[in-house]
Amino acid sequence: MINHALPRARAVADIRIHAGRLRSQLGRLVLYLIATVFGIAFMVPFFWTVGSALKSPLEMYAYPPLLFPAVPRWGNFVSVWNEVPFGSWALNTVTVTVLGTIGTVLSSALVGYSFARFRYPGRDAIFLATLATMMVPTEVTLIPTYLLYNYIGWLDTLLPLIVPYWFGVGAFNIFLLRQFFMTIPSELDDSAKIDGASSLRIWWSILMPLSMPALATVAVLSFIWQWNDFMFPLIILNSPENFTLAIGLRHFQQMADIQSMPRQHLLMAASLMVSLPTLVTFFLAQKHFVRSIVMTGIKG
Amino acid sequence: MSSATTLDGVASKPARLMSLSRREALEGYLYLTPWVIGFIAFVGGPMLASLVLSLTNYHVVGSLQFLGLENYVRALTDDHLFWDSLKRTFYYTLLVVPLGITGALLAAMLLNQNLAATTIYRTLFFLPSLTPVVATAILWRWIFNADVGVLNYLLWAVGIEGPGWLNSTEWAIPTLVIITLWGTIGGNTMIIFLAGLQGVPQDLQEAAAIDGANALQRFRHVTLPMLSPTVFFNLVLGIIGGLKVFALAYVATDGGPAYATWFYALHIFAQAFKYFEMGYASALAWMFFVVMLVFTYLQFRWSSTWVYYAGEVK
Predict the structure, then answer these.
(1) CA distances (Å), A141 to each of A123, A165, B51, B240, B283, in order?
(2) How far, in Å, CA of A246 to CA of A254, rounded?
(3) Does the distance separating the beta carbons of B182 and A167 come in below 8 Å?
(4) Do A34 and A153 lie in a common domain?
(5) Closest among A5, A213, A234, A64 to A142, alpha carbons compared
(6) What is this structure's pTM?
(7) Is residue A61 part of a domain?
(8) Among partner residues A42, A137, A198, which is closest to B127 by beta-carbon distance?
(9) Helices (H), chain A
(10) If exposure means fewest CB atoms within 10 Å of the residue's CB, which of A78, A168, B13, B189 is most exposed?
(11) What would the pLDDT profile of B168-214 be if each residue is shown by its tens digit?
């Protein structure tokens, strides 16, 4: 009985496995299909922007709507620079982003070093306070900081968009770098100390070079944040020539809406140019991006 | 490099005079200074200042009067936009958080299936979240344009008369929710879920499969409990982010039509920087902070009933 049943059971099992494989292959095909459909759905608005940026004013209002114009007007991108001080906006944004990012990396690395490597009274309480500041919404500090900048005459300058970043305002970055420094064996510090290196030297020549991945992560996050920041520059900057790209784009949008000359196609071209640098940065630093977000999620 | 050497010389002299631990503490405080200055000037100080301002009628120009709690009473009893904007903000958050978290989890699970070219899919999903919010708003305004927009055209082609989207008081908030979802589903929330999924032990999944659990059961009874801390993290951040909605509404609708998208942060902004009612706006901001703290606190309280920490000792 047993001997007899065994081959049959095996045959049934074989069929089941075969059917199972077929089903799982079909399943994977469906998964690819879903992933592709969603991927395209996420991309369509980008195609739409590119298409619109190359249209003539008439084609913007064409009905039925056109995805791509008959003749792409590459000149639209040049026209933007003539319509608005796009060059100044780009320069302002680069200034703010680069200086702010350097400040963020240096100040949060120094403060993170203090938390990670030194023992002093109140350290843990201060560290907790640092973490707690992440909970404070911008809205609560916005008005007094605005009044402060008004008082010291920094309104309508780029200083408020740079200086705070040199004083470790991004608590999260401090946290991230502290965590990273703590993974570096302190024997390295000790041997440098014996060789007579000062603590500042140990930070700069030993910990910083070893922390390049974490520093890059902080730099990338800070870059994106500052490039896209909207609410704060909106209240600080008044004169169009001092705007950053994000605020400038908003300014251009209002101009394009109000004035009779149709400029919506140029607005789309400007939107594309403002978005491009962050997208390119992402492609160049994809690894750091994903790691940084994972670090925020897992350890945060 | 030369500056570091100079500092060597300076720092090593007092070292002989004081004990090692005192020196360590002093250096620790020294490197903390940027944060201390930053905290006083840009976080703690301003918070205190805004609390004080909230008790006054500060207008930038004109006389300053102490009002006590009058601003708070005014918001609660004499400002219908306070309640309306709060209601709209809650409505928006209530739509955007569950949809966003579910969408991000599904997208992350899709990317966790070891498909070939996962990196490409991940990039495609992720890119919208990097687009500056102003550009996002400008772009979607065209797609949702009631008259010449491509969406209403496509709906018309299949025989549906599309709504006014951002021009409709009824549809404006749901439309903003759709735009937000496009910009956030594939963003940080998804990546955090993806990392969480990769942390779910494979042997647990296999054990459940051997015990005869199907895919749905494995998700419900293995993946989801193991993932609950990640869900919790994303939920807390998602609710805070939802309540803070500002830039998208400011650019896409400017609070309109007829105040339909006048969210709480827009209300604070208008009071402060349009009418320069700094005292009143500070009171609004502090109430906002309290609302957020209460929400976060409640979630932490509630979390013990559904969040499972593998390493937790009970």
Answers:
(1) 25, 15, 10, 16, 12
(2) 13
(3) no
(4) no
(5) A234
(6) 0.86
(7) no
(8) A42
(9) 2-53, 57-60, 75-83, 86-117, 123-132, 138-151, 171-182, 187-194, 199-202, 208-210, 212-228, 231-236, 245-258, 264-284, 286-299
(10) B13
(11) 899 999 999 999 999 989 888 898 898 888 888 888 888 888 888 88
Q: Encode pLDDT of A26-45 as tens digits.
A: 888 888 999 899 899 889 88
Restricting to A residues 69-128, those with a Cβ less than 8 Å away from any Cβ of B are: 107, 110-111, 113-115, 117-121, 123, 126
Structural domains of chain B in order of their starting residue, each with its CATH number: 2-53 (no CATH), 80-303 (1.10.3720.10)
B196/A290 touch (CB, cutoff 8 Å), yes or no: no
| A117 and A242, same domain (yes or no) | yes
- How large is the greatest C-alpha to C-alpha distance in chain B, in angstroms? 87
- ipTM for the complex? 0.83
Q: Are A131 and A300 in contact (CB under 8 A)?
A: no
Q: What residue in A sits closest to B270 (Cα-Cα)?
A: A235
Q: Are residues A109 and A174 in the same domain?
A: yes
Domain range for A212: 76-299
Give the amino acid at B129. S
A24 in reach of chain B (CB within 8 A): no
Q: Give me the residues paired with residue B56 across strands.
A: B66
Domain count, chain A: 2
Residue A73 identity: R
Residues A150 and A187 in one domain: yes
User: Domain check: are A128 and A19 in the same one?
Assistant: no
